[in-house]
Amino acid sequence: MTKSTNAAIYARISRDVTGEGLGVDRQLADCRKLAADRGWIVAEEYVDNDISAYKGKRRPSYERMLEDISAGQRDAVIVYNTDRLTRRPIELEEFVQICQSAGVEEFATVTADINLGNDDGMFMARILAAVAAKESGRKSERQKRKAREIAEAGKPNGGNLRPFGYERDQVTIVESEAVVLRVLAERYLAGESLMSLANWLQEEGVSSVAGMPWRTTTLRQTLTNPRIAGLRAHNGVVVAVAIWPAIITKATHEQLVAMFARKKVTGRRAPRRYLLSGLLRCGKCGNKLFSSSRKDTRRYVCMSGPDHRGCGRLTIVAAPVEEWLAEAVLMRLDSPAMADALVGRAIADERHAALAAELQSDQAQMKELAELWADKGISMAEWKAAREPIEARIFNLDRQIGQLTGTSTLAGIIGNGEAVRASWDSLNLSRQAAIIAAVLDYATITPKTSAGRVSVDPNRIIATWRL
């Protein structure tokens, strides 16, 4: 009795644009017909849809087929064409080795027969794999060149998922989503955390274009995407002005990118339980006050020790000083000085790009200096001497940019102190801290003048205002 041949059919398509798998279905139909003509039994069909065989990505069904061949469960392999099996010569050699070890010599294609059991068949298979690899390389280069041309023309790059803020054509603005993006940009620039903004979106019932809740990573990518500023980027670099209208200004985009970069470098975190984190100074030694709790009382404390380097001799209860400074900020929002701050807003936006460029240059110089020291090109003493003026410039630039950001993001709040006061308790802590930090640079807390005082003594608080 003749032993039946248990064949494996393998089908693959590298890019399924429609998502319907029609290319794979056509391959399978032709392979089934070939198996019927040979009198082979189709033991299993292995399908990898929308996966390239040129870039070396994992192909789960292909790997499972190899395991079944190695286990002696398959006697033959059928594919539509050799380039469906692989486009990499090294992968072909691995496939042949597995087939030879398992005693599988029957390898059939719809377009041509190849016998892997003899030298001529192997020679032909290697030639076809090499040709397929070269064609894939050419195709990849053509696609890259075309993508670059499209980008430099300011056109969208296609894709099945539309960008948030735009219709499926990627050009027409969805105004309801555009409003959300502008609010997000304004509130982030005012100092609100991504987590707070993501929670706000969920509370408002605003979903991403995929219908999923917003995550901080998705929010960061959306807010820093040049597309929403009407700019076309390619491989992370802006190459043209886009053909679609902008949702935010270029200046706002630059401010967002700069703020994300600063937070990444400095590791700043948004305040959680303490409204004035990072905004209070010790009146004895000038060091920052740190949040600390003792039993049920929240406090701001000047901490000593090598990590904090304060005098350790000043403490103030958190709640009263938070209430006093919050009220002072709300009163200041309605002051003539704040109204005057808006007059220079346009000038501030123009200055922002120049300051951001200076900051980037100094940061690059600091990195170059560190690399010189690591390569032993300069001594520790030389490194320290060169580092100090650069650090001072970075500190000053960072503060100037922060002040410009605060000015440009308070446009909807300045002059509306009473309205903000009425809704103050309904704002989350991150939003409250953002408003305060946009107005207040820092406040110095002086030592107590008398013991046992429960309420805060206003004379102990010396505010230094940004605006």
Automatic annotation (TrEMBL):
Q: What is one Pfam family matched by this protein?
A: Recombinase
| Location of the Recombinase domain | 163-266
Give the Resolvase/invertase-type recombinase catalytic domain ranges. Answer: 6-154
> Where is the segment annotated Disordered?
138-161
Where does the record locate the signal sequence feature? none
GO terms for molecular function, please?
Answer: DNA binding; DNA strand exchange activity
Q: Which CDD domains match?
A: Ser_Recombinase (cd00338)
Show the InterPro entries listed in the entry. Answer: DNA_bind_recomb_sf, DNA_bind_recombinase_dom, Resolv_N, Resolvase-like_N_sf, SSR_resolvase, Zn_ribbon_recom_dom
Name of this protein: Recombinase family protein
